[in-house]
């Protein structure tokens, strides 16, 4: 009798702690200067509603930043924000830092067929090279996939400089890091990744920032190169970068077959998701967790390795990397984020329409992987996630495979979901 009574309670607790919808869009719209400006953008082809797909996010105070990569022509603005206090279900996006930073003279509808796409790897290596538009406006954001806000109120933007990726790719600017002061909305610095650190298949779609509030000037950024299997490390203090290679940055050839929303495709994306553990001393020493997208395995390396250029780029560093374990079948992931309040790493589950979790104090085994939420409607292709300073998880889902390989229906395709980390792990192995 006791078992019969307890079981429904357990089910109720589990279902009551699923993620909640914060925002949802059928298609994205923007805070245009005027209705006339919007209509002119539509007429000229600079704004094509169905070509605007949200991909990355991060949170600062009342701003939820959302990226919109230029997969196709007609993307109005690649870096934007909405206000968390907004009450509308589908709020308009505000371009950041301003509209002028997203005015691209060459962003017009293409007339050629789509480029081949294999995850992060495209035919962009043959992209038309246009004059560097950063020479006219250094604040310009061409196309960004993921961003990171650090403890020092700085927004770090990995800008690929590439427009119309799936159509007629145009390299409007070199790969670069743009760093903004969120208190003033001014550009602090633009760092161009040296040409010899960008390979033929390079594709930079993520950025991780390693710093502490008391040492803002000593920041490092880690840029996974998912297309040519390396990590570019940027030293903010010395305004210098270097390229680090390792076998663990490659994809698993047995894990590149994916099926999402009935769409089957094969990707070869290497190192992509990265998360930073908590500092263990006053020097900021911590663990860097990482995995390839086309893989189910998780790895780690001390940040002291990546921050030491001489050691990181030598053969001696090979055994400083660790295989933590395997998440299990069909557990490929695009993004991960560590929550220091629960000691849990949250990660996307693109093959399962889900969000997973792992408590770093437990062995990395399939049995210790939890499932926070799974939803074949709201969580179709969870693409990015972050945890804010208050312990709230934000997840962005966007049905990207349908956007690339199929057709999105006239329904709610893009969502932001949230949940308190301490609550959503209840009843999972992560608690």
Concise synopsis of the structure shown:
This protein has 431 residues and is mainly beta. 10% of the residues lie in helices and 35% in strands. The protein is globular.
Model description:
The protein is mainly beta and 431 residues long. The chain has a domain at 31-192. 10% of the residues lie in helices and 35% in strands. The two termini are 27 Å apart. It comes from Clunio marinus. One of its GO terms (cellular component) is extracellular region.
Strand order of the largest sheet: 1-31-30-29
Major sheet: size, sense and barrel closure?
A: 4 strands, antiparallel
Rg over CA atoms, rounded to whole Å, is: 21 Å
Number of helices: 6
* Low-pLDDT residue spans: 1-16, 111-116
In total, the number of strands is: 31
- What percentage of residues falls in helices of 4 or more residues? under 10%
- Overall form: globular
| Beta-strand content bin | 25-35%
Report the mean per-residue pLDDT as an integer: 92
SSE-based structural type: mainly beta
Query: End-to-end distance, in Å?
Result: 27 Å
Family: Belongs to the major royal jelly protein family.
Protein name: CLUMA_CG001074, isoform A
Pfam families: MRJP (PF03022)
Keywords: Secreted, Signal
